[in-house]
Amino acid sequence: MTVPPRPEIRISDADRERAAARLRAAMSEGRITMVELEERLATVYAARFASELLPPLKDLPGDPRDVMTAAPLSTPVGPPLVLRTGMGGLRRVGPWRVPPRLRVQSTMGAVLLDFTRAELTHPVVEIELELGAGPARILVPETATADVEGLHAGLGMVRSRVSCVPAEGPHFRIYGRAGLGSVVVRRRYRIGALRL
Fold first, then answer.
1. Are strands 101-106 and 81-85 parallel, antiparallel or unpaired?
2. Residue 196 reports pLDDT greater than 60
3. Residue 130: is it exposed, middle or buried by C-beta count within 10 angstroms (0-12/13-18/19+)?
4. How many Å from the N-terminal Cα to the C-terminal Cα in the chain?
């Protein structure tokens, strides 16, 4: 008597997000074009089984099966770098060295944290926000993910335009409170050759 083969296991959203992150990284490295990225992302997001994730990744560096296993993310340790402002704005842009933990305190000023050109010293960056009345924008690299589940807004709102599922790029854990201001987490906008 022969035993029938075991049916293929269905993949999770996290598996799809890891595959999508690998494709976005390949596009940012110049390995695939924007058109190829869109075609491959359509295949990845329509995939139901692991074997359907392999074709869009097969000609890229690394083993395509690696997207099926999540790498454990360690929690940063040590004291945070504290960034404070009262009524004025707080801006960290351009090249800067980012420690694993940040605490941002603002009474009424606007906050802009731009990590797109920053040197990240840890795969996970924890950001604790203590915001009063000002808004905050957090710009993350193309391959980054961000978890904002621990961030609570009073009269403002929290909006993240990046995946919360950790993938190959850096992962941001953003938590704390925002009183009257809104918090937006996103990548830089692309308009032609410009990145805003």
1. parallel
2. no
3. middle
4. 64
CA distance 172 to 141: 10
At 150, list the tokens.
């621990």
Distances (CA, A) of 106 to 74, 84, 88: 28, 6, 9
The average pLDDT across 15-25 equals: 85
Ranges of each domain in the chain: 13-68, 81-189
- How confident is the model over 111-127, as pLDDT tens digits? 999 999 999 988 999 99
What is the residue type of 179?
A: G
One-character DSSP codes across the chain: -PPPPPPPPBPPHHHHHHHHHHHHHHHHTTSS-HHHHHHHHHHHHH--BGGGTHHHHTTSSS-GGGGGSPPPPPPP-SPPEEEEESSS-EEE-SS-EEPSEEEEEESSS-EEEE-TT-EESSSEEEEEEEESSS-EEEE--TT-EEEEEEEEESSS-EEE-S--S--SS-EEEEEEEESSS-EEEEPPPEETTEE-
Q: What is the pLDDT of residues 157-173, one digit of tens each?
A: 899 999 888 888 899 99
Question: What is the pLDDT confidence band of residue 20, given thresholds at 50, 70 and 90?
Answer: confident
Amino acid occupying residue 74 = S
Is-above-0.70 flag for pTM? Answer: no
- Arithmetic mean of pLDDT over the chain: 85
